[in-house]
Amino acid sequence: MKNRRRERLGWVVGLVVLTVIVALVRACGQRGRGPVEEWVETPVQTFVTPSLVTQAPGVPTPTPTFRPTEQAATPADEDFDRSLTDSEEMRARRDALVRRQVMPMVSDERVIAAMQAVPRHCFVPTSYLDQAYNDHPLPIGYGQTISQPSLVAMMTEMLDLQAGERVLEIGTGSGYQAAILREITDQVYTIEIIPQLAGTARRILDTLGYGDIHTLRGDGYYGWWEYAPFDAIIVTAAPDHVPAPLVAQLSPNGGRMVIPVGPPGGYQSLWLIERHGEDVTMQRLFSVMFVPFTRE
Q1: pLDDT, tens digit, for every residue of 102-111?
Q2: Is pLDDT of 258 > 50?
Q3: Which residue in the list 51, 147, 251, 287 is annotated as catalytic?
Q4: Is 87 among the residues known to form the active site?
Q5: Residue 189 domain-assigned?
Q6: What pTM, to 2 d.p., does this model score?
Q7: Domain presence at residue 154
């Protein structure tokens, strides 16, 4: 009897393990595929006024509450763990990364030029300088990472950003993505919730000549109403749902948002959201892994 119970338990455990493996294989396989043709269409009112059905007739939608801009203090020299000098060796490694990992994934010449211009090694802690031009994420402290370069390039290309357009980044992190965006347009706004990262990124951006990037220390869930609407929004951490304030801040004239959505600690789906007048379309692209979206 005991042997039968053990055998039955073994089958159950094996079935569970097999199910997990199949799910992981499917998720991994999805990462390397092209865009998934999955579209969702919904009126923009769903995001702008989610409680409209309970609102009294004739009562206008409340105006969003503006927050005072909050800037994080830049770190002291002894706490600043970055190397802000470039060199021939670093430039050669950067060119090799772009040639081998970025150019096969994107075709936009402006994105490729931006990836070649921005020194990624300046945005990572000095202990990771030897890995700065490998095509994988790297820790930057406080449970956060600098994203994989090829994914940064792909997400930037998905925005279809044009010179002079206004773009909002949610999750400044290291500051690397903001610098890439600034190479394409001079209207870059970025929000970081962790004060230490916000301060470090501000110092790096100022030193590297990106002083005109607008930075804010705050909860990115609410976006930056003072400067809306935005032609493009890019989110570099994964919430478990699409934040309604961000959709509401997209330009009604073809505003685009690229955002990973899904549970923390696993694979999420990368979505391309577009707003045209009062309509919003959502296209699921492929599976990704991002750090969780942090809230205050």
Answers
A1: 999 999 999 9
A2: yes
A3: 147
A4: no
A5: yes
A6: 0.79
A7: yes
